[in-house]
Amino acid sequence: LSEWQSAQFTSGQLAAGLAAPDEDPDHDGWVNLAEYALGTPPNAHTPQLTGTRDAAGFSLTFTRPKGLPDVIYSAESSEDLSTWTPLTIQLVTDGPTQTLRVVDPLTTGNANRRFLQLKISMP
Fold it and tell me: What is the pTM of this model?
């Protein structure tokens, strides 16, 4: 993370604390830790992830740089934003940038009211 911060931020931004993991200098709703974990630029707008509903269920697909040892990814689903159920993150495409997918099969609860969240943290 520290190498990424040094590469992505100016010395002025670093001194001002704008490179901290929980800061969002471009105000796009993605804190720096998420930008790092998803391989997106912290100083330019990154669109939010969008879920997709198909025969497999409700899914969220995202990309990430391969092999970041200081990031933990997890995903959950909910129908009420109070109770969250862990989901498995599946590898779709492997390479220097990986594509991953989270699927809620919609086999329990209200299939018409579902939320997914991707959680990114540090060990």
Answer: 0.91
For 21-78, what is each residue's pLDDT tens digit? 999 999 999 999 999 999 999 999 999 999 999 999 999 999 999 999 999 999 999 9
Using DSSP, state whether 35 is helix, strand or coil: helix
Q: What is the distance of C-alpha 70 from the center of its chain?
A: 14
- Residue 41's Cα: distance from chain center in Å? 13
The helix (run of H) or strand (run of E) holding residue 11 is helix 11-15
For the chain, the residue count is: 123
Rounded CA separation 66/58 (Å): 25
Residue 106: phi and psi, rounded to 5, are 60, 35
Dihedral sign for Cα atoms in the order 35, 91, 120, 3: negative
